[in-house]
Structures are given as C-alpha cells and as structure tokens.
Amino acid sequence: MPSVSVQRLFTDNRERLDLCWLAGQQGSLRVVTVGALSDSTAGLIAHLNLTHPHRFQVLGAHEMAYLQSLDEGALATAWEGIFSSELVAIFLSEGCVLLPALAERAEQRSIPVMGASVDSTSVINQIRHYLSQELAEQESLHGVFMVILEVGVLITGDSGAGKSELALELITRGNGLVADDVVEFYRITPDTLQGRCPPLLRDFLEVRGLGLLNIRSIFGETAVRPRKNLKLIVHLERPSSGDLNTCERLPMGRQTQSILGVAIPRVVLPVAVGRNLAVLVEAATRNFILEQRGINSTQEFIDRQQQFMQESCAQGDSHEF
To answer: HPr kinase/phosphorylase C-terminal domain location, by residue (predicted)?
Structure first.
C-alpha cells in the first residue's frame, strides 16, 4: 500500500517550499497512507480547522494572530483541537515565529512542525498535489506504454504478438517510450490515470533477437518520457483462423477497458503478416483525437450513406410522376 513519511515529504518539498524543521523532528517517521485521500473522517491538508481535523494543519499569519488573541482557557481548547488523534504534522507558513506552547506540545507528542517561507495557500496546493501523486491507487499491467502524437497509449496483446517490435518502430517515427513490459498506473484524479515505469526497467526495451536496448542512449532524451496520462488502449490480437476476413470491418460500439475504476477507450487491431502496425496505431491515435473533438468518421460515413439513400428515394418518387 502506498505511503509517505513526513521525512520523505520534507525532503521532496524542501526546496520548493523552503522548508525547515522547527520542532518534533523525532516524529519524522510518521506516515500517511493511501486511505487518507478518501477518508471522510479527517481532511488531508487545509488552514486551521478546530472542528474538522486535518492530518496536516497549516498555520499562517491569520491563524497565528487568532491563536495569540485567545485567552488562556480558549487557547488550551484550541491546542487540543489542533493536536487531534489524526494529526500527522503542522506547517507554519509565511515565516511565522514558533510559539513556545506549540513547540512544547509538538515535542511532547512527537508531532513534526515544519516552517515554510511561502504563503499558506502555496503550501496547501503543493502538499495536496504531492500527496495525490504519491498516494494514488496503483495497478500494474503488462504491455508497452507509449506517447504517440502526445497521447498516452497502452499497447497490449499476448506474448509474441509483436508489441516491443511495434514500439521500436514507433520510436523511430518520433514517438516516445514510457515503459516496456510492466507499466504502473496511478489514479491521480477520479477520472485520470497516470502511467509510469518501474525504476528498474526505466529506459529499457526488450526486443527478441536484440535483447535489452537502452532507448535513451540509442535514440536520445526525447525518445523516453517519465510519465503520461493514459488515454487509449490498443490491443493486438491474432485472428483465431488467421484470416482477417473473420474480423469485424466496421466496429460500431466503442470498446472500453476499466482500470482502477476508470473506463479507457480500447481499439483492437488484428495482427497479420504484411500489416504495418505502426501506421495503424498512429491512425488509431489520430482517430481518437478526432473523436475527442466530436468527429466520428464511422458515424459521419453512416450519416452520408443515409442521406444518399434518402435523396435516391426522393428522386425515384419524382420520376414516377
């Protein structure tokens, strides 16, 4: 299950937010897991909230001024609201000075307190985006993930269908490789999947007869992409009889494949000797782009055919008179 420790969060965002440790560093091994993104009992990160607890509380100039304005009894109640059982860490934004009472409680309860020189909104936006990336639901699939015409395309098919050879030809045509063999998909928003390559396999493509190829070294930096949102699946399928005539010529309904609860458009390409799969995959991608713009080539042809038949019938009726 994906998880992020406070120490890792601090290290990864230190430069961007100009972070520093203020108190409670002994609690840096506290972790937040993937369930934090969907847990309705506690928020993830926001400004000070004493009624609905957050795992990460952000205190800026306004919040600190509010706390300092409270009398002793109200302040004690506020501290109890801040240091809830769900609390993982506290951010002091805008270069606010750490109050002694806050430092004391943070040390007692091993709650990390980090300081940031940027404003509180920047802290919230950055940490929320970071956690949504790192704690996203994950699923690994077999296939080759490519960036074709700037569209994330997953090429799937049985072993020996020619996925890697197809990927190599697509790369020579200027497209990019994200991952070969194993692709890790993360659900970064309710309807968005992002594909990445496992660190061990990064830059490599396995081709039968050639072995492992370092695509970055052979074709350059632009031939490899670190990640891309998945938009289309192209499945390579060998006809059971080996005859392309058995395949559907004009598929009408759009196929989809569900990954982590997200429906992804899917195109099935029959594999046969002599077919230029690279051209077909690029054509399928271009057709997908047109469909995203509201242009459906098959439906356009059907509409034209119906109009032609209606006009022919009308002309036939007029000749009878």
So the answer is: 133-304
